[in-house]
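Hi, here's the filled form for the chain we discussed.

Project: internal
Contact: R.S.
Residues: 269
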Amino acid sequence: MSKAWEGTIQIPVEGRTIKPRKTGFTMVIDKGLGVRRLEDLIETSGDYIDVIKLTFGTSAFYDEALLKKKNEIITASNIDVMPGGTFLEVAIWQKVFDEYLDRAYELGFSAIEVSDGTIEIDSQKRKEAITKSLDKGFKVITEVGKKDPKEAPPISLIHQLIGEDMEHGAFKVIIEAREAGKGVGIFDTDGKIREDEIDNIVAGVENTDCLIWEAPLKNQQQALILRLGLNVNLGNIPPDDILALEALRQGLRGDTLKKVYLEKKDWKK
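And the returned structure, exactly as it came back:
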């Protein structure tokens, strides 16, 4: 399918990955999209969405038929869908993790998020959660970091968990920033990037392509793209912001167009 302006306007920033991709990954946060809005989202932006997360424990409140229908629409569009990591933490806490995986499979989820953002999960249980999810046929995306900034783990533990999760078969590892993107992880209380925190994380990761940076705010997305490139993996993107994010990635928004323009003022095809 050709794009509307193909042959007239050339994309300023070249090299955008296409699906199925391992870099340039975009994770959408879904707090309760209805079927019609979901269909509209996929129709307009499906090429640029890699996974939709039914965040927190929101999937507990869906009618079963509706949830199955949503998941079917998503997976049929070559997009993964997963429940939020907080829901998994509840399952582990209540000692029903195996049943949780069985039910997630029955409901049509294709991926599982493994996290310990709220409760304490030891390394052995974390490994078991990853391997059991993989054995059940799910794609596994893990998360490191705590939702309460007062409980932020030391950088050495962050590095250890990232390495272990990838070794155990995780597809990607999310850097926690919550849905607000303020006062947690690499962001200060105003939502601005803490460059030193990025430096600390990157310094201990062999290949940063394994990381998904939660970045719900436009200034955060822009900063990460300018620093780590158009194919940086980004998460917790609001549904209405997908095409705006693509414009940032590909130099079709002033913030990133300015960079490529200054580097190449005399445009040559």
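Let me know if anything looks off before we file it.
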